[in-house]
Amino acid sequence: MTALLIRDLRLAMRAGGGFGLGLGFFLILAVLVPLGVGPDTGTLALIAPGILWVGALLACLLSLDRLFALDHEDGSLDLLATSPIPLEGVVAVKALAHWLTTGLPLALAAPVLGILLNLPGPAFAPLMLSLLLGTPALSVIGAFGAALTVGLKRGGLLMSLLVLPLYVPTLVFGAQAVSRAAQGLDGSTALLLTAGITAGSAALLPFAAAFALRINLR
Amino acid sequence: MASLWEYANPVKFMRLSGWLMPVSALLAAGLIVTGLVWGFFFTEADYRQGASVKIIFLHVPSALMAINAWAMMLIASLIWLVRRHHVSALAAKAAAPIGATMTLIALITGAIWGQPMWGTWWEWDPRLTSFLILFLFYLGYIALWSAIEDTDTAADLTAILCLVGSVFAALSRYAALFWNQGLHQGASLSVAPGTRMDWAYKAPLYLCMAGFALLFLALVLAGTRTEIRARRARALMTRERARA
């Protein structure tokens, strides 16, 4: 399983792997929003938590369609399915690799973009913390969506239609944690709920995703 | 006594639904027409909301069926996953567009009602928002069905999407409550004590709700029958082609 993790990380880092694309997307979004809504710092501070969370969510979505598709095309997914590691474990490792290459960098980069969007001071720590706690859920839910659509041509668009509604609770709780902190309120309930969704998804969704993969490999 | 599972046999299902569908359709038409005519023309206008309250006779039944259609799809998906009865998978498929339409009717009648009462067509209220999200779930489910050619694969994948989607739809409902306190009133039809609706409204409303439930049943049966017939036709065509 460690070997699989290292392999996936290497593949993501290499040219064409798309590492950093998500970060670039995140940065461009944080630049485009002020250009769209105007440079008024008050407005920006108000919408910054939501924009950063939506941006992180879309950046995660961007790299999801390659999660299983590449391995499916060259046949290594069939090999992984017949390997001694259970398919649930393969899904979990792939989701972890996806998080390490997208969710984690996004969470680390988010405070910088928070400065661009004039995020209020007390909200920086909750922003990073909520992204750290919430983005693993995005990767696991995304792995489920990618497993559903792996065999399909043009599955990417369909996958976003399937995955984005599933992202709603994570987005609500994650963004609430930040915006409550930005207003000087206590955001810890929202933070705990975000972590709860991550824990629940990480525990259950690999089974659903592996089930979907087995059907698609049938 | 015949077991329920006998109707997993398509032939028996077709025989049963052959008379159940028209009967429930006729009953539904009778109940809805009676309920709406009673509700629209033979009830007093509300002292505060005036006549606009009467859209409740469309709004509440469609919202009720919007949620229950998803619940029915969930049960049908479970039956398909556990017992592999094709009729069940096809019934879930048939229910999805009907549920989506009911959700849309509830949203649109709600907007029409909300405009004079709240002064807005749309408000990011938890109930409204969760219905919009439910509509998105329906869209994704329908899109997944139509994207996959092999029917058994499609049935399996949509069933698992329905299971996972149900959990996340419920989570979204409570997330929306956490997110915003809304304008929409609480339940006025409930066994719990509190402000209740008068029987003058309740009676026609119950008729409409029963009518919508039967309408849903008739539509699902019609959709499932269509799917079964389409599958038979496909099988026949394959056989013909194999012979030629």
Automatic annotation (TrEMBL), chain A:
It is a multi-pass membrane protein. One of its GO terms (biological process) is cytochrome c biosynthetic process. It is found in: Cell inner membrane. GO terms for molecular function: heme transmembrane transporter activity. The keyword Glycosyltransferase does not apply. InterPro entries: Cyt_c_biogenesis_CcmB, Cyt_c_CcmB_bac. Required for the export of heme to the periplasm for the biogenesis of c-type cytochromes. Belongs to the CcmB/CycW/HelB family. This is Heme exporter protein B.
Automatic annotation (TrEMBL), chain B:
The chain crosses the membrane at residues 20-42, 62-82, 94-116, 128-148, 160-179, 199-222. Residues 5-184 form the Cytochrome c assembly protein domain. Its main location: membrane. Pfam families: Cytochrom_C_asm. InterPro entries: Cyt_c_assembly, Cyt_c_biogenesis_CcmC, Cyt_c_biogenesis_CcsA/CcmC. It comes from the Bacteria. GO terms for molecular function: heme binding; heme transmembrane transporter activity. GO terms for biological process: cytochrome complex assembly. It is found in: Cell inner membrane; Membrane. It is a multi-pass membrane protein. GO terms for cellular component: plasma membrane. Keywords: Cell inner membrane, Cell membrane, Cytochrome c-type biogenesis, Membrane, Transmembrane, Transmembrane helix, Transport. Belongs to the CcmC/CycZ/HelC family. Required for the export of heme to the periplasm for the biogenesis of c-type cytochromes. PANTHER family: CYTOCHROME B_B6 PROTEIN-RELATED, HEME EXPORTER PROTEIN C. This is Heme exporter protein C. The lineage of its organism: Bacteria, Pseudomonadati, Pseudomonadota, Alphaproteobacteria, Rhodobacterales.
